[in-house]
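Subject: Re: docking follow-up (pyridoxal-5'-phosphate)

Dear J.,

Thanks for your patience while I sorted out the input files. As discussed at Tuesday's group meeting, I've set up the holo structure prediction with pyridoxal-5'-phosphate included as the bound ligand rather than trying to dock it afterwards. The sequence and the ligand SMILES I used are pasted below, so you can double-check that they match what you have on your end before we go further.
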Amino acid sequence: MTSRYWSPLINRLTPYIPGEQPKQQNFIKLNTNENPYPPSPKVKEAMIAEMERLRLYPDPNADVLKEAVSAFYGIPVDHIFVGGNGSDEILAHIFQGLLKHDLPILFPDITYSFYPVYCLLYDVSFEKIPLGDDFQIKIEDYFRTNGGIIFPNPNAPTGCLRPTSEIRELLSKNRDSVIVIDEAYIDFGGESAISLIKDFENLLVVQTLSKSRSLAGLRVGFAVGSPSLIEGLERIKNSFNSYPLDRLAITGATASILDRDYFDQTRQKIIASREFMSQKLQDMGFVVLPSKANFLFVRHPYHQGKKLQQLLREKGILVRHFSDQKIEQFLRITIGTDQECQTLLKTLQEILYDR
Ligand SMILES: *Cc1c(COP(=O)(O)O)cnc(C)c1O
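The structure tokens for the complex came back this morning:
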């Protein structure tokens, strides 16, 4: 469809398509990397109390949340940006405010598919850098002139992690543009690049509460970097919306960050299930990329990815398939509860061996 009322910009866009959110509740949902466990009980308690105050606008700076993140990571508050509508909206501000320059930005050819969408929206030129044959990011391929660099670590949808030593090397070779590390999955076994912030003024680390803190429905993220980068993001945010984080989001997110024990318990459970699943899938003949995320990226030498996805769907299990030619043989499977993992394994057994 098109319309004469549209701006030229709209005609140029190719919007992001998120994974399916079925209306029926009876699917086992392993397709959008949600956490299978509920958020900390403290989140609910805090949000119910906050409902009394919904009459009032929220704190535009969300200071309690900034202070919780500051205490969690031991970094000053002026190094922290908090954002509403998930880290996706923070990423949008980053593309518009920190990555849009004359030179093209760099990101991997296989990565979070929102990045090229933002490039079109904000008219940012980009170059895709191919992953290695092992589906790993080759850091030395980024040692070149650029308008900025962004990738997730661990990468999506591969789940593969690069060590902090390599991020440090990249930063020491690239001081002229902003390097954004999207740490949506860092809590499932990686080491955050936040430790490098003190040494590199051009590093911005982005995190979300959607995955490791079970709050995908609340839409909260944050970014950590030097005060100059943070101030840049604040300027964009305050030119767009004073209150991207509502009262319930600020309160729930803060309670979640403060409950360290619950956070550690759930992520350790997911890490243990991931290792178990990885082994079981390999026993079934799947090639499983090494993952430090809450999902596995797998392919079977004798079964097509798309076909497996459809057969699983018919049996009530949703997993994600990407049609990009380089990864069309793969399935991305989110780690579920023990029960969900068992059902997936049993169903795959049936599909692979019984028909
Ligand atoms: C899930 C995800 C995000 C964003 O999540 P939000 O729910 O918007 O916070 C960002 N980057 C990557 C790589 C993701 O997988």
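A couple of observations from a first look. The chain has two domains: 24-38+261-353, 41-258. DSSP finds eleven helices and twelve strands in the chain.

Let me know if you'd like me to rerun anything.

Best regards,
T.
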